[in-house]
Write a structure and sequence with these properties.
Strand order of the largest sheet: 1-4-5-9-8-7-6
Number of domains: 2
Bound molecules: phenylalanine
CATH superfamily of the largest domain: Bira Bifunctional Protein, Domain 2
Number of strands: 9
Helix content: 40-55%
Protein backbone atom coordinates (compact mmCIF):
# COMPACT_ATOMS: atom_id res chain seq x y z
CA UNK A 1 0.00 0.00 0.00
CA UNK A 2 2.84 2.45 0.91
CA UNK A 3 4.25 2.03 -2.57
CA UNK A 4 0.87 2.71 -4.19
CA UNK A 5 0.54 5.99 -2.27
CA UNK A 6 3.99 7.05 -3.39
CA UNK A 7 3.18 6.33 -7.02
CA UNK A 8 -0.13 8.14 -6.74
CA UNK A 9 1.59 11.11 -5.13
CA UNK A 10 4.14 11.33 -7.92
CA UNK A 11 1.52 10.91 -10.58
CA UNK A 12 -0.55 13.68 -9.01
CA UNK A 13 2.39 16.04 -8.77
CA UNK A 14 3.48 15.65 -12.38
CA UNK A 15 -0.12 15.98 -13.65
CA UNK A 16 -0.55 19.17 -11.69
CA UNK A 17 2.73 20.65 -12.92
CA UNK A 18 1.75 20.06 -16.52
CA UNK A 19 -1.57 21.93 -16.31
CA UNK A 20 -1.62 25.09 -18.40
CA UNK A 21 -4.91 26.58 -17.29
CA UNK A 22 -7.64 26.36 -14.67
CA UNK A 23 -9.93 24.11 -16.74
CA UNK A 24 -7.18 21.52 -17.02
CA UNK A 25 -6.55 21.83 -13.30
CA UNK A 26 -10.19 21.15 -12.49
CA UNK A 27 -10.03 18.02 -14.66
CA UNK A 28 -7.09 16.81 -12.58
CA UNK A 29 -9.10 17.44 -9.41
CA UNK A 30 -11.88 15.18 -10.71
CA UNK A 31 -9.38 12.59 -11.89
CA UNK A 32 -7.89 12.19 -8.40
CA UNK A 33 -10.49 13.39 -5.92
CA UNK A 34 -13.76 12.96 -7.82
CA UNK A 35 -16.40 10.31 -7.05
CA UNK A 36 -14.77 7.92 -9.48
CA UNK A 37 -11.30 9.35 -8.90
CA UNK A 38 -8.10 7.47 -8.19
CA UNK A 39 -8.05 8.20 -4.44
CA UNK A 40 -11.68 7.15 -4.05
CA UNK A 41 -11.06 3.84 -5.76
CA UNK A 42 -8.29 3.07 -3.24
CA UNK A 43 -10.72 3.85 -0.45
CA UNK A 44 -13.07 1.27 -1.85
CA UNK A 45 -10.41 -1.41 -1.35
CA UNK A 46 -10.36 -0.68 2.41
CA UNK A 47 -13.30 -3.01 2.99
CA UNK A 48 -11.11 -6.02 2.42
CA UNK A 49 -8.55 -5.00 5.05
CA UNK A 50 -8.28 -5.60 8.77
CA UNK A 51 -9.35 -2.92 11.22
CA UNK A 52 -5.81 -1.70 12.07
CA UNK A 53 -4.73 -1.68 8.48
CA UNK A 54 -7.87 0.14 7.56
CA UNK A 55 -7.26 2.81 10.22
CA UNK A 56 -3.66 3.25 9.14
CA UNK A 57 -4.39 3.49 5.42
CA UNK A 58 -7.49 5.60 6.01
CA UNK A 59 -5.27 8.17 7.77
CA UNK A 60 -2.89 8.15 4.82
CA UNK A 61 -5.71 8.64 2.39
CA UNK A 62 -7.08 11.58 4.35
CA UNK A 63 -3.63 13.11 4.55
CA UNK A 64 -3.18 12.71 0.79
CA UNK A 65 -6.60 14.17 0.18
CA UNK A 66 -5.72 17.31 2.16
CA UNK A 67 -2.32 17.60 0.51
CA UNK A 68 -3.81 17.19 -2.97
CA UNK A 69 -6.42 19.82 -2.24
CA UNK A 70 -3.81 22.25 -0.98
CA UNK A 71 -1.63 21.67 -3.99
CA UNK A 72 -4.55 22.20 -6.32
CA UNK A 73 -5.34 25.51 -4.59
CA UNK A 74 -1.79 26.76 -4.78
CA UNK A 75 -1.46 25.67 -8.41
CA UNK A 76 -4.71 27.49 -9.06
CA UNK A 77 -3.21 30.72 -7.73
CA UNK A 78 -0.20 30.34 -10.03
CA UNK A 79 -2.42 29.67 -13.07
CA UNK A 80 -4.74 32.56 -12.24
CA UNK A 81 -1.78 34.91 -12.14
CA UNK A 82 -0.47 33.49 -15.40
CA UNK A 83 -3.82 33.91 -17.16
CA UNK A 84 -4.15 37.44 -15.88
CA UNK A 85 -0.67 38.33 -17.12
CA UNK A 86 -1.38 36.84 -20.53
CA UNK A 87 -4.58 38.85 -20.78
CA UNK A 88 -2.76 42.02 -19.74
CA UNK A 89 -0.15 41.45 -22.42
CA UNK A 90 -2.77 40.96 -25.10
CA UNK A 91 -5.15 43.74 -24.15
CA UNK A 92 -2.97 46.47 -22.82
CA UNK A 93 -3.56 50.07 -23.76
CA UNK A 94 -0.75 52.57 -23.51
CA UNK A 95 -2.54 55.49 -21.90
CA UNK A 96 0.58 57.62 -22.23
CA UNK A 97 0.17 57.90 -26.04
CA UNK A 98 -1.20 61.30 -27.06
CA UNK A 99 -4.41 60.55 -29.02
CA UNK A 100 -4.08 63.80 -30.98
CA UNK A 101 -0.62 63.04 -32.31
CA UNK A 102 -2.07 60.45 -34.72
CA UNK A 103 -1.58 61.01 -38.44
CA UNK A 104 -5.13 61.21 -39.79
CA UNK A 105 -4.38 62.13 -43.40
CA UNK A 106 -6.14 64.91 -45.27
CA UNK A 107 -7.84 65.74 -48.53
CA UNK A 108 -5.79 66.28 -51.66
CA UNK A 109 -5.86 69.93 -52.81
CA UNK A 110 -7.65 68.89 -56.02
CA UNK A 111 -10.33 67.13 -53.97
CA UNK A 112 -10.65 70.14 -51.69
CA UNK A 113 -11.23 72.48 -54.64
CA UNK A 114 -13.61 70.03 -56.35
CA UNK A 115 -15.70 69.65 -53.20
CA UNK A 116 -15.78 73.40 -52.70
CA UNK A 117 -16.97 73.88 -56.31
CA UNK A 118 -19.67 71.26 -55.85
CA UNK A 119 -20.89 72.96 -52.68
CA UNK A 120 -20.98 76.36 -54.35
CA UNK A 121 -23.09 75.07 -57.23
CA UNK A 122 -25.36 72.85 -55.16
CA UNK A 123 -26.15 75.95 -53.09
CA UNK A 124 -27.22 77.63 -56.35
CA UNK A 125 -29.59 74.83 -57.34
CA UNK A 126 -27.27 72.70 -59.51
CA UNK A 127 -27.20 68.91 -59.48
CA UNK A 128 -23.88 67.07 -59.43
CA UNK A 129 -23.64 64.40 -62.14
CA UNK A 130 -21.01 61.80 -62.90
CA UNK A 131 -19.89 60.21 -66.14
CA UNK A 132 -17.58 57.40 -67.26
CA UNK A 133 -13.88 57.93 -67.97
CA UNK A 134 -14.15 55.55 -70.91
CA UNK A 135 -16.47 57.11 -73.47
CA UNK A 136 -17.73 56.54 -76.97
CA UNK A 137 -16.91 58.89 -79.84
CA UNK A 138 -20.58 59.83 -79.84
CA UNK A 139 -20.59 61.31 -76.33
CA UNK A 140 -17.10 62.77 -76.44
CA UNK A 141 -17.28 64.29 -79.94
CA UNK A 142 -20.25 63.78 -82.25
CA UNK A 143 -23.06 64.80 -79.92
CA UNK A 144 -20.94 67.82 -79.01
CA UNK A 145 -20.97 68.99 -82.61
CA UNK A 146 -17.51 67.64 -83.41
CA UNK A 147 -17.92 65.25 -86.37
CA UNK A 148 -15.10 62.86 -87.23
CA UNK A 149 -13.49 65.05 -89.92
CA UNK A 150 -13.51 68.11 -87.66
CA UNK A 151 -10.11 69.73 -86.94
CA UNK A 152 -11.19 70.29 -83.30
CA UNK A 153 -10.48 66.59 -82.78
CA UNK A 154 -6.79 67.31 -83.34
CA UNK A 155 -6.73 69.64 -80.35
CA UNK A 156 -8.08 66.90 -78.16
CA UNK A 157 -6.10 63.83 -79.15
CA UNK A 158 -6.59 60.99 -76.73
CA UNK A 159 -6.10 57.30 -76.06
CA UNK A 160 -8.26 54.95 -78.13
CA UNK A 161 -9.26 51.38 -77.38
CA UNK A 162 -9.33 48.78 -80.13
CA UNK A 163 -13.14 48.55 -79.92
CA UNK A 164 -13.52 52.25 -80.69
CA UNK A 165 -13.95 53.50 -77.12
CA UNK A 166 -11.70 56.28 -75.90
CA UNK A 167 -10.61 58.02 -72.71
CA UNK A 168 -12.75 61.16 -72.49
CA UNK A 169 -10.86 64.34 -73.34
CA UNK A 170 -13.15 66.64 -71.38
CA UNK A 171 -16.11 66.50 -69.01
CA UNK A 172 -18.46 67.85 -71.71
CA UNK A 173 -19.91 64.35 -72.44
CA UNK A 174 -21.63 64.80 -69.05
CA UNK A 175 -23.72 67.53 -70.73
CA UNK A 176 -25.05 64.98 -73.23
CA UNK A 177 -25.61 62.30 -70.61
CA UNK A 178 -27.35 64.88 -68.40
CA UNK A 179 -29.74 65.91 -71.19
CA UNK A 180 -30.64 62.25 -71.76
CA UNK A 181 -32.02 61.85 -68.28
CA UNK A 182 -33.08 65.31 -67.12
CA UNK A 183 -35.68 67.46 -68.82
CA UNK A 184 -35.24 71.25 -69.02
CA UNK A 185 -35.16 73.54 -67.20
CA UNK A 186 -32.09 72.18 -65.39
CA UNK A 187 -28.76 73.14 -63.84
CA UNK A 188 -26.03 70.53 -63.69
CA UNK A 189 -22.32 70.30 -62.90
CA UNK A 190 -20.01 67.35 -63.57
CA UNK A 191 -16.52 67.02 -62.12
CA UNK A 192 -13.98 64.36 -63.02
CA UNK A 193 -10.76 63.10 -64.56
CA UNK A 194 -10.05 63.74 -68.23
CA UNK A 195 -7.28 62.44 -70.49
CA UNK A 196 -5.30 63.78 -73.40
CA UNK A 197 -2.42 62.50 -75.46
CA UNK A 198 -0.25 65.36 -74.36
CA UNK A 199 3.41 66.00 -73.71
CA UNK A 200 3.90 66.51 -69.97
CA UNK A 201 5.35 69.82 -68.74
CA UNK A 202 4.85 72.23 -65.84
CA UNK A 203 1.29 73.04 -66.95
CA UNK A 204 0.21 69.94 -68.93
CA UNK A 205 -0.39 66.36 -67.95
CA UNK A 206 -2.00 63.46 -69.81
CA UNK A 207 -4.52 63.16 -67.01
CA UNK A 208 -6.08 66.13 -65.27
CA UNK A 209 -9.42 67.22 -63.79
CA UNK A 210 -12.23 69.30 -65.14
CA UNK A 211 -15.41 70.77 -63.77
CA UNK A 212 -18.26 71.02 -66.26
CA UNK A 213 -21.36 73.10 -65.86
CA UNK A 214 -24.55 73.55 -67.87
CA UNK A 215 -27.72 75.50 -67.31
CA UNK A 216 -30.70 75.23 -69.65
CA UNK A 217 -33.86 77.28 -69.27
CA UNK A 218 -35.98 79.80 -71.14
CA UNK A 219 -34.20 83.08 -72.02
CA UNK A 220 -30.76 82.20 -70.73
CA UNK A 221 -28.16 84.74 -71.84
CA UNK A 222 -24.46 85.53 -71.48
CA UNK A 223 -25.41 87.69 -68.48
CA UNK A 224 -26.40 84.54 -66.58
CA UNK A 225 -23.12 82.91 -67.53
CA UNK A 226 -21.11 85.87 -66.24
CA UNK A 227 -23.13 86.00 -63.02
CA UNK A 228 -22.53 82.34 -62.16
CA UNK A 229 -18.85 82.46 -63.11
CA UNK A 230 -18.22 85.57 -61.01
CA UNK A 231 -20.06 84.04 -58.07
CA UNK A 232 -18.08 80.80 -58.33
CA UNK A 233 -14.69 82.54 -58.58
CA UNK A 234 -15.55 84.96 -55.80
CA UNK A 235 -16.30 82.02 -53.49
CA UNK A 236 -13.17 80.09 -54.47
CA UNK A 237 -10.77 83.03 -54.12
CA UNK A 238 -12.71 84.57 -51.25
CA UNK A 239 -12.75 88.05 -52.75
CA UNK A 240 -14.54 90.14 -55.35
CA UNK A 241 -13.41 88.93 -58.79
CA UNK A 242 -13.50 90.73 -62.11
CA UNK A 243 -13.85 88.69 -65.30
CA UNK A 244 -13.66 89.32 -69.02
CA UNK A 245 -14.74 87.25 -72.00
CA UNK A 246 -12.68 86.87 -75.14
CA UNK A 247 -13.93 85.04 -78.22
CA UNK A 248 -12.96 81.38 -78.02
CA UNK A 249 -13.74 78.48 -80.28
CA UNK A 250 -15.46 75.34 -79.04
CA UNK A 251 -17.78 73.60 -81.53
CA UNK A 252 -20.40 72.90 -78.84
CA UNK A 253 -21.00 76.55 -77.91
CA UNK A 254 -22.01 79.55 -79.97
CA UNK A 255 -20.88 82.16 -79.18
CA UNK A 256 -17.89 80.61 -77.40
CA UNK A 257 -15.55 82.38 -75.01
CA UNK A 258 -12.36 82.17 -73.08
CA UNK A 259 -12.98 83.57 -69.63
CA UNK A 260 -10.18 85.49 -67.90
CA UNK A 261 -10.02 86.70 -64.31
CA UNK A 262 -8.37 89.98 -63.33
CA UNK A 263 -5.11 89.08 -61.58
CA UNK A 264 -5.80 89.12 -57.85
CA UNK A 265 -2.25 90.16 -57.01
CA UNK A 266 -1.56 93.09 -59.33
CA UNK A 267 -5.17 94.00 -60.21
CA UNK A 268 -4.31 94.19 -63.88
CA UNK A 269 -0.96 96.00 -63.73
CA UNK A 270 1.04 92.91 -64.66
CA UNK A 271 3.15 90.80 -62.31
CA UNK A 272 4.99 87.50 -62.12
CA UNK A 273 1.83 85.67 -61.09
CA UNK A 274 -0.10 86.62 -64.27
CA UNK A 275 3.03 86.62 -66.45
CA UNK A 276 2.72 90.40 -66.91
CA UNK A 277 -0.65 90.05 -68.66
CA UNK A 278 -2.81 91.44 -65.84
CA UNK A 279 -5.42 88.74 -66.57
CA UNK A 280 -5.45 85.03 -65.86
CA UNK A 281 -6.90 82.67 -68.45
CA UNK A 282 -9.29 80.32 -66.66
CA UNK A 283 -11.77 78.40 -68.76
CA UNK A 284 -13.81 77.83 -71.86
CA UNK A 285 -17.50 78.66 -71.87
CA UNK A 286 -20.33 79.89 -74.04
CA UNK A 287 -23.96 79.54 -75.05
CA UNK A 288 -24.93 75.94 -75.77
CA UNK A 289 -24.92 75.33 -79.56
CA UNK A 290 -28.42 74.54 -80.98
CA UNK A 291 -27.00 71.30 -82.44
CA UNK A 292 -26.04 70.16 -78.96
CA UNK A 293 -29.51 70.95 -77.61
CA UNK A 294 -30.92 69.01 -80.57
CA UNK A 295 -28.66 66.04 -79.75
CA UNK A 296 -30.16 66.19 -76.27
CA UNK A 297 -33.74 66.28 -77.64
CA UNK A 298 -34.29 69.81 -76.46
CA UNK A 299 -36.23 72.32 -78.56
CA UNK A 300 -33.70 75.07 -79.29
CA UNK A 301 -36.44 77.54 -80.18
CA UNK A 302 -37.88 77.27 -76.69
CA UNK A 303 -34.79 76.74 -74.55
CA UNK A 304 -31.28 78.14 -74.43
CA UNK A 305 -28.40 77.61 -72.06
CA UNK A 306 -24.81 78.26 -71.11
CA UNK A 307 -22.02 75.79 -70.49
CA UNK A 308 -18.53 76.03 -69.07
CA UNK A 309 -15.58 73.75 -68.43
CA UNK A 310 -12.69 74.62 -66.17
CA UNK A 311 -9.55 72.85 -65.08
CA UNK A 312 -9.71 71.95 -61.39
CA UNK A 313 -5.95 71.37 -61.25
CA UNK A 314 -5.32 74.82 -62.69
CA UNK A 315 -7.74 76.41 -60.23
CA UNK A 316 -6.05 74.59 -57.32
CA UNK A 317 -2.65 75.75 -58.59
CA UNK A 318 -3.84 79.37 -58.68
CA UNK A 319 -5.48 79.12 -55.27
CA UNK A 320 -2.52 77.52 -53.53
CA UNK A 321 0.21 79.18 -55.62
CA UNK A 322 1.53 75.92 -57.08
CA UNK A 323 3.71 76.45 -60.14
CA UNK A 324 4.00 72.90 -61.47
CA UNK A 325 1.12 70.50 -62.14
CA UNK A 326 3.25 67.34 -61.92
CA UNK A 327 3.73 67.07 -58.15
CA UNK A 328 -0.06 67.45 -57.81
CA UNK A 329 -0.37 64.07 -59.50
CA UNK A 330 2.65 62.48 -57.83
CA UNK A 331 2.69 60.39 -54.70
CA UNK A 332 4.86 62.66 -52.59
CA UNK A 333 2.93 63.12 -49.35
CA UNK A 334 5.27 65.85 -48.15
CA UNK A 335 4.13 67.90 -51.11
CA UNK A 336 0.37 67.47 -50.73
CA UNK A 337 0.45 67.80 -46.93
CA UNK A 338 1.42 71.44 -47.33
CA UNK A 339 -2.11 72.14 -48.54
CA UNK A 340 -4.00 70.00 -46.07
CA UNK A 341 -6.95 71.69 -44.47
CA UNK A 342 -7.78 70.28 -41.06
N1 LIG B 1 -14.73 71.10 -72.98
C1 LIG B 1 -13.94 72.26 -73.21
C2 LIG B 1 -12.47 71.87 -73.08
O1 LIG B 1 -12.17 70.88 -72.52
C3 LIG B 1 -14.27 73.36 -72.25
C4 LIG B 1 -15.65 73.92 -72.45
C5 LIG B 1 -16.74 73.37 -71.78
C6 LIG B 1 -15.86 74.98 -73.32
C7 LIG B 1 -18.01 73.90 -71.97
C8 LIG B 1 -17.13 75.50 -73.49
C9 LIG B 1 -18.18 74.95 -72.82
O2 LIG B 1 -11.60 72.57 -73.55
Amino acid sequence: MEKEFEILDEEFNSSIESTGNIVELENIRTLFLGKKGKLTSIMKQLKELSNEQRAEIGKNINRLKTVFQQRIESRKEVLKKKEFEEKMNEEWIDITIDPFSRDFGSLHPITTVQKRLEDIFVAMGFRVLDGPHIETEFYNFEALNIPSHHPARDMQDTFYFEDGHLLRTHTSPIQIRGMETIKPPFRIVGPGKVFRCERTDASHDSCFHQFEGMMVDRDISVAHLIYFMKTMLGEIFESEVEVRLRPGYFPFVEPGFELDMLCLLCKGNGCKFCKQVGWIELMGCGMVHPNVLKAGNIDASEYSGFAFGLGIDRLAMLKYDITDIRPLHGGNLNFVRQFSIT
